[in-house]
Please model this.
Amino acid sequence: MKKNSLKRVFSALALTAVAASSATMCAFAEGTSDELNGLTQAEADASELKPKITISSEVITVDEAKANPTRTVTMSVTGAELKYASTGFHVYYSKRLELAKNRIGDMAVKPGAALEFISPGEPKEDPTAEEQDMKGFFVASAGASSKGTDGVMWEFQFIIPDDVQEGEVFPIDIYYKSTENAKDLFTNKPNNLEGQTMQAYVFTRGINNGRTSSFDPAAIVDIDGNVIEKAVDNCPAIANVDPGTDGVIAIVGGGTTSTSTSTTTSTTTTSTSTSTSTSTSTSTSTSTSTSTSTGDTSSTTSTTTSSGSTTTTTTTTKGGTTTTTTKAAGGTTTAAAGGSPTTGVAGVGVAVAGLAVALGTAFVLRKKED
Model:
């Protein structure tokens, strides 16, 4: 089939510079076995007859579309003058369009001058187009001889929706289909090798299938067969249609599509702070006390060692008079009862604990530095 999964893959390709890319694609791409009808692509490409089937396009303003919503589209053939008789084509179109009705209520699809000398069949609706998210119909012809000519084969009318928007595009597509019992055709009356190779060429090169031949926005033609100039400039969305599309009804506008990429670089700074504090405090205090008494004289000696500093305090009581003598590192302080301490060495202050300790209770003196 024409629009198989491969077609959807190719539809993701950008359509910029389509003319060049299409030519390159055709150089190596091949049609399916159904499209080739048992031939090879090389045999199809070697056909003396190389017909081209086209769908007309138009680019109109939204005002024109609303004023004249019924639009005429044609299917035309070139390169097959008096060379074909049996034809069969599926035409698929945008679900946003409506196929108009003729004056007797049938589909507004009628044969053109190219089928004047052969017999066109009655157009039929194709509900299976829904599988491609489109609408569709089938047209065919036959003849007692190969008298099909170049020109317009079929003419059909579509109705543009009331809510049409600027920049909107409605695709129209010739869609190849085949089953076990039937297949689309474009061959001569005897269906000989000439007719078979012509048919293989038509469905692989003569229509757009997105693989061997692709939609070219710069080469779409109007109803008279003339290339529509600046079509993409007037409607940028034309460049984004499926590569298998054969024609479009496009509405002017829509602006220009652009892609902007913004890159933000974030720098993270890591700061490591290490603080080490070591505090060691060792305090050792040893205290001894010795008391003596002789007659009216009593004496108590207390020795205190604290943090490597030794203080000796001697308290003597004689005849009711008490004298306290303190010996510490750096100086000696003597205080009579009721008196105030004096500093033995300048710059060193000694705090005296003047507590009376009875019988073996030590005085504890603590050195206090300025």
About this structure: The chain has a mean pLDDT of 76.
